[in-house]
Amino acid sequence: MESLIKAAKNFEFPALISLIIANNALAPGIRLAENYNIPIKVFDKRDFNKSHFEAKTHETLLEFDIEMICLAGFMQILSRNFLYKWKKKIINIHPSYLPKNKGLNAQKQAIEEKAAFTGCTVHFVNEEVDSGKIILQEKVKIEPKDNVQTLSNRILQKEHVIYPKALKQIAHDIIKLRN
Fold first, then answer.
1. Active-site positions?
2. CB 138 within 8 Å of CB 99
3. 150/31 Cα distance (integer angstroms)
4. Cα atoms found within 13 Å of the Cα of residue 19, Cβ hemisphere only
5. pLDDT-derived band of residue 147, with 50, 70 and 90 as boundaries?
6. Which residue of 8, 29, 35, 121 shows the fewest CB atoms closer than 10 Å?
């Protein structure tokens, strides 16, 4: 999330991060948003069921005139109804070179299968886990001495580079559609 916020602070970047929504009051992104004076809404998953969380989120997104949703550390599957309302407007970053190693523990999966490489992927979110149209990917070589943490750290470095690039690309496309 921080790489998106920092990129959006650049005057030439075509997108603005204007709201952070969290489903966990202890999420690290909340402090980050506070540091950058970005409005925050927390709909704690302990206080809301899924449909109520999605309804409040949708209402808030409309209230803030949000055009794109960038998921970061959001470990919840969104409903078909929510996805339909925001079709082709939700992106996510996943720590694997999709379509390989979908879902949880992607780095562990890659190491266990003795893959030569993995990476990270920015993709549109659809009804199937980590299966939406790929926007941008970056490969990361798996070293013989890698463990889940060392590999995760190297993937994260690439994520910080490609997520802002992908958002920039999508924002440019949205701007072109308006003209």
1. 94
2. no
3. 25
4. 17
5. very high
6. 35
Residue 93 backbone phi and psi in degrees, to 5: -115, 135
Whether residue 169 contacts residue 124, with contact meaning beta carbons closer than 8 Å, is answered with no
Candidate from 41-50, 94-103, 132-141, 155-164 with smallest mean pLDDT: 41-50
Per the structure, the complete domain to which residue 123 belongs is given by 2-178
179: confidence class by pLDDT, cuts 50, 70, 90: very low
Q: What is the pLDDT of residue 178?
A: 58
Nearest one of 170, 164, 171 to 138, comparing CA atoms: 164
Give the CATH number of the domain where residue 15 resides. Answer: 3.40.50.170
Is beta strand 134-141 parallel, antiparallel or unpaired with respect to 117-124? Answer: antiparallel
**What residues contact 127, with CB distance under 8 A and at least 6 apart?**
80, 83
pTM for the full model?
0.94
